[in-house]
Amino acid sequence: MSRLVIVSNRVAPITEGKPTAGGLAIGVFDALKDTGGMWFGWNGEIDAEPAIAPEIAHRNNVTFATVPLTRRDYNTYYRGFSNATLWPTFHYRDDLTRYQRDDYNGYRHVNARFASLLAPLLKHDDLIWVHDYHLLPFAQACRQIGLQQRLGFFLHIPFPSPQVLMTVPPHEALVRAMCEYDLVGFQTEIDRTAFTDYLLRFAGATMNGDGTITAYGRTLRTGVYPIGVYPDEIQKQATARATVKHILDLKQGLQERKLIMSVDRLDYSKGMLERFRAFERLLELWPNQQGTVSFVQVAPPSRSDVAGYGEIRRQLEAEAGHINGRFSDLAWTPLRYINKRYDHEVLMSFFRASQVGYVTPLRDGMNLVAKEYVASQDPADPGVLVLSCFAGAAQELDGALIVNPYDIDGMAEALRSALNMSLSERQSRYESMMGALREHNLSTWRDRFINDLRAPAAATPALLRCAQPAAA
Q1: Structural contact between residues 317 and 299, judged by C-beta atoms closer than 8 angstroms
Q2: Residue 374 above 90 pLDDT?
Q3: Which of 68, 125, 205, 285 could anchor a disulfide with 199, C-beta 3.0 to 4.6 Å?
Q4: CA 321, CA 421: separation in Å to the nearest integer?
Q5: Are strands 213-215 and 218-224 parallel, antiparallel or unpaired?
Q6: Residue 458: pLDDT above 80?
Q7: What is the superkingdom listed in this entry's lineage (predicted)?
Q8: Domains along the chain?
Q9: Is the dihedral of CA 385, 389, 392, 398 positive or negative?
Q10: Alpha-carbon distance 73 to 264, whole Å?
Q11: Phi, psi angle pair for 461, to nearest 5°
């Protein structure tokens, strides 16, 4: 069987037996361990000079091939085009997008350099699986140096509608480069439709009878592969740390109050400001909730050197201070906003201790936190998930209370419903969602993509079996 080669922007440090928060890291590492393979990408370090060759390490039947970035490459490829242009645009925040041609040139340069550094390590029958928005043109860079291996790409974040994508000046070049992949995968049918819509409307593409699409002289396949979690493993994590100091401190601070729990990276796409305002509205509209419920938001900082992230942190701190100043008394602080990291097992224990999971991104490719919240619950007394309709997970988790994060009153009403929901209804919703999590777990996501990438083009109908309907 052909060897699997994973290419991602960052090669996650994996220590077997220790928890890791990243679904991508878990799924990729398991796939590589099963068959033996290689994981290639940035090691997270900045060096003065570009690498001549990757640093090679071997662990658990997996070869890790990693390279540093130069300061210039980090600024243009990572901070610049990837996270100041693509990230906000793909999350429908074109108002925050910053485009500089030099950043785009740096983005293409790093993709080409990654391809040239990977090439000497490849075997002719390798299967190459490329991940996420940092590497949209990676296949094109590979083809330009003569690589003919099968190349698949999976986008972990949303793919924007054509009108939004076209706000990025080199949009046509990016989509043309994506067509050099043999298979392009998305989290939801909505994302796949946005991609094919661009090709059909603006690239003169043809949709073929076998489900493939021909554009820019290439025929490729697309598929929908919602990423999952390992729910039974999360259940174990949620109960493993029940007596750890963080959990005991949390429960002592609650003093029998109900808990609304949120965990997010500090990012403007997560809708935390709107979430805070909806919690404030809950306390306004239903004063009997004051003193009976606490809201904990854990938001570890990320990408602090990317423009825009300092501002969202200032806004959240101001809003948290406003809410606490307005409603706190000597015995109760309604909102605890925490900028620190916790181990994954501790976070799962926090989820299990809460009555409401509050997951309301303005836009998200999937949102594994929503799935982790459900999986961490006590089946005998589960909490309720309040979930944004703009998270990919909303198409699978039919037992959640689905909200529009731009509707502050609507979110407040959902919080009240969640806090007062009967046990029988909570259990029914939980069981429905756990069934979906087990059916479409992380292994299912991984194996479906790899099998479809390995299959000949005529096997396209297999891609459609798990396609999700577009949200109404």
Answers
A1: no
A2: yes
A3: 205
A4: 29
A5: antiparallel
A6: no
A7: Bacteria
A8: 4-224 (3.40.50.2000), 231-438 (3.40.50.2000)
A9: positive
A10: 27
A11: -50, -25
* CB under 8 A, 24+ apart: contacts of 279-282: 279/323, 279/334, 279/335, 279/358, 279/412, 279/415, 280/319, 280/322, 280/323, 280/326, 280/327, 281/408, 281/409, 281/411, 281/412, 282/412, 282/415, 282/416
Catalytic residues: 156, 364
Sign of CA dihedral 60, 65, 70, 76: negative
Q: How far apart are the first and last CA of the chain?
A: 42
User: Could you give the C-alpha distances from 76 to 109, 199, 217, 241, 390, in angstroms and in order?
Assistant: 10, 27, 30, 41, 29
- 171-178 vs 189-202: helix axis angle to the nearest 10? 110
Quick one: angle between helices 272-285 and 309-327, nearest 10? 10
pLDDT tens column, 346-372: 999 999 999 999 999 999 999 999 999
At position 4, the amino acid (one-letter code) is L
Q: How far apart are CA 379 and CA 429, in angstroms?
A: 11
Beta bridge partner(s), residue 9: none
CA–CA distance, 88 with 429 (Å, rounded to integer): 33
Write the single-letter amino acid at 428.
Answer: S
**25 vs 432, higher pLDDT:** 432
Tell me the pLDDT tens digit for each residue of 9-20.
999 765 544 444
* Token couple for 163: 């009108």
The residues, any chain, with a CB within 8 Å of residue 180's CB and separated by 6 or more, are 137, 139, 140, 142, 143, 151, 218
Q: What is the pLDDT of residues 137-148, one digit of tens each?
A: 999 999 999 999
**3 state DSSP class of 133:** helix
CA 427, CA 212: separation in Å to the nearest integer? 42
